[in-house]
Structure formats: structure tokens, C-alpha cells
Amino acid sequence: MDIQSNLGPVCDILLAANNVCSLTGAGISAESGVPTFRGKDGLWKTYRAEQLATPMAFIQDPRLIWEWYDWRRGIIASKEPNDGHKVLVEWEALFPNFALITQNIDGLHQRAGSKNVIELHGNIWKQRCTSENTLIENHDVPLEEIPPHCETCGALLRPHVVWFGESLDGSILQQSFHLSAACDVMFSIGTSAVVQPAASLPLSAAEHGAKIIEVNPDPTPLTDFADFSFRAKSGEFLPVLNDELKKRTHQKKE
């Protein structure tokens, strides 16, 4: 889809919207240099991500799993939010109601300045007590103790992320579907649109009458359902769209 000729129609839709929702996936973080840790990027020592990110792997060898997460945290800590992340920060103030839902666990949205981030798959900078289920935020790189233990009860801590074979937090998922169903416009940014249940969020939004805008370098299963589908990187496209939005907002005020 041609970007320039469709900027105007997209801006018109956005300027009339009260509720805007954005779903982000691995693509927006990949633009900051964060590996996906799956596929060709997933090999660590002799293990694949799919072998390590499971409850059973943690039970069998928590030290190994934490060594892997410590390595991942070190990589992520060296990366910076990109222009796509920064535009979404501005949109929190621009739209009357703006919801940011992410499949990413790297915390780059928060580092960019986003205040209200709904994390479907958890956060690599948080640890959860396996006994008390309490959350601890920890940004140490490298970790001081591997595997880490709860200072309160001494139980093992685990990464606060959703592993293969685990269900998403029910309240977070319910909130995400509620926001998707209530929005006027939904962005799908840098996501493959194949990982469930996140892939169903834009479809739910469309069923309730929202306009769907996809931003992804490659076509996805969502492309045919989107009202606008831009073959572009979010860090390049979103600033262009944001500049046009700000220009039209200024003209409207005049």
C-alpha cells in the first residue's frame, strides 16, 4: 500500500477517533537490535529457545534457565528504544484514550516513556516468587545470584514471563480484549499475527467496527482483514504518520 497517498485518509480516521489501541510485536524491538531469540537467533550454547522457555526446563535445571535469561537481559540492556517506540509515547497524550498492548517482554516501551503498557507475555525485568507469587523488579546486569531466590521466603524466583505451555494472565487478557473491542482504531505493529491469543485482538476490534491499520515489512495473516496495511518498518513509518497528524492537528486548531 502506497504510504503517501494513504496518509491523509489514515489521519482523518485518527483525528476523529476517541479510542485508539496499538498491539506491538517482536518487529518493533527487532528494529532496536533485539533478537527474537527464536528461529535462527534462538540458539544459545546447544539449546534452542523452545527448549528453554518451558516450566519443565525450569524445574529440571533452574540455573541453566536463569543463565540463559541473564544472557538475554544483557543483550536487551544494550539496546535503545527506536523512533517507533517514541511515537507511541506521544500518542498517549495525543489521543483522548490510548491503549498500548505488547507481546514483547523487553521493557523498551517503558524505557521510551510509555506509562501504561499492557504486557501480554510478561516482563524480563521482573521476577516472580515460586512460593508466594510476589513480583520483584530487578534490572541488575549481570544478576548477582543465579538462580535468584526470594529475600522474603527463600524460594526460587522465576522470570515473570509466559513460557511455552503456560496460559496468559486471565485478567490481562480480558482487559486486552475489552480495550480492543472498545477502540475506534487499532494498530497492529511489527507482529506476525500468528501467535494466539494476541493475534485475535485486531480481529476482535474489527468485529466491533474498528478500523485496522497494519504496519509490518511483510504480509501477515491479518493483512487481508486490515483497512490499511503498510509494508514498512514502524520506526520509519510511525514518525512520518505522526508528523502528518501533528500538522493536521495544528491546522485544525487554526
Topology, please?
Layout: H1 3-15, E1 19-24, H2 26-30, H3 49-52, H4 55-60, H5 62-77, H6 83-94, E2 97-102, H7 108-112, E3 117-119, E4 122-129, E5 135-137, E6 157-161, H8 170-182, E7 185-189, H9 200-207, E8 211-215, E9 228-230, H10 234-253
Parallel strand pairs: 1-2, 1-7, 2-3, 7-8, 8-9
Antiparallel strand pairs: 4-5, 4-6
Helix pairs in contact: 1-10, 6-10, 8-9
Q: How do you describe this structure in short?
A:
With 254 residues, the protein is an alpha/beta fold.
Description:
- The protein is of the alpha/beta class and 254 residues long.
- It folds into two domains: 3-32 and 82-121 and 168-253, TPP-binding domain (Rossmann fold); 39-78 and 128-161, 2-Layer Sandwich (SIR2/SIRT2 'Small Domain'), CATH 3.30.1600.10.
- The protein has ten helices and nine strands.
- The protein has helices at 3-15, 26-30, 49-52, 55-60, 62-77, 83-94, 108-112, 170-182, 200-207, 234-253, and strands at residues 19-24, 97-102, 117-119, 122-129, 135-137, 157-161, 185-189, 211-215, 228-230.
- Helix 7 (108-112) links the parallel strand 2 and strand 3.
- It starts with a helix and ends with a helix.
- The relative contact order is 0.19.
Largest sheet: 6 strands, parallel
Please give the count of helices: 10
Helix content estimate: 40-55%
Approximately what portion of the residues adopt beta-strand conformation? 15-25%
From the alpha carbons, calculate the radius of gyration and give it in angstroms: 19 Å
Q: What fold name goes in the CATH topology slot of the largest domain? A: Rossmann fold
The CATH superfamily of the largest domain appears as: TPP-binding domain
Large-scale geometry: elongated
Name the CATH class of the largest domain. Answer: Alpha Beta
Mean pLDDT: 95
- The computed structural class is alpha/beta
